[in-house]
Design goal:
This protein has 256 residues and is mostly helical. The longest helix has 30 residues. The two termini are 33 Å apart.
Length: 256
């Protein structure tokens, strides 16, 4: 059992490092929360009258799950830049040459990134509830949190894959924006899928983020587009695939 304890200690160490680095940087907390609030203000105020005129109801309530999804998506994927920098100049570079399991290093870091993203999503959710989101039963909040966990883990692994494959820290942001922005807008985050063209519906159905946002929206508002059990199954499957892909990509990395 010594190997198990060593593995858990390493995972805990890397998880704690990610979380403490986040909590000790107030500027990072503020900047990470700025984008979700920009979506809430710009899109919420801009499209709310149109949404109500179309007979759809409260656009703010519709938008909140999408904003939570964007918070998780961009923070987890962009965290891959930390891995890229770290494996070249920082702490990860040191652990990679140590007699430590690459899998434990990857999972400890991904768990920390997931925790940070969920903390940010919870903060945004609290502000949204204060700003006027209708009251949701505790069971609905827990279900929404479960969907948030699934997409946070998935995109943490996606960020790890990008951080393992790419080598240029300067171009990382442009590449991630190229990947993450279409994922966000083709996830049903800012517009309902009912009545959309077949191409939009098809692309959205191929996007794992869509199932997480729809699950959160259904849990918070009671309206699901996809079957929630199907969404959970798909998210679990893509998480397993992403975990194996991230493990393989990180195992191929050599200390620079």
């Amino acid at each position: 059992m010594q190997w198990w304890r060593t593995a858990m200690d390493l995972i805990y160490c890397l998880w704690r490092r990610q979380v403490m680095a986040y909590l000790r940087a107030p500027g990072r907390v503020f900047s990470a929360l700025a984008q979700p609030f920009l979506f809430l203000v710009a899109l919420g105020l801009g499209f709310s009258p149109i949404y109500q005129q179309a007979g759809r109801g409260d656009y703010f309530a519709f938008l909140v799950p999408g904003v939570l999804g964007s918070c998780i998506l961009f923070n987890t994927v962009f965290a891959g830049n930390d891995l890229l920098w770290d494996r070249q100049f920082g702490f990860i570079k040191e652990t990679m040459v140590a007699p430590a399991s690459r899998t434990c290093i990857l999972f400890g870091r991904a768990l920390g990134v997931t925790t940070v993203a969920l903390i940010q999503a919870v903060l945004v959710g609290v502000v949204c509830s204060v700003a006027g989101l209708h009251k949701v039963p505790a069971g609905g909040v827990l279900i929404a949190f479960g969907f948030a966990v699934l997409i946070a883990i998935f995109f943490s692994f996606i960020g790890s894959i990008l951080g393992s494959i790419l080598k240029d820290t300067q171009s990382f942001g442009q590449i991630v924006n190229f990947v993450a922005t279409p994922l966000f807008y083709l996830s049903g985050a800012v517009f309902p899928l009912e009545g959309q063209k077949l191409l939009v519906v098809t692309l959205t159905s191929l996007n794992p983020l869509s199932y997480g946002i729809d699950g959160m929206r259904g849990a918070l508002g009671g309206q699901y587009y996809y079957d929630p059990l199907m969404s959970v199954f798909i998210l679990i499957v893509v998480n397993i695939v992403a975990a194996f892909a991230a493990t393989f990509a990180f195992s191929r990395v050599r200390p620079d």
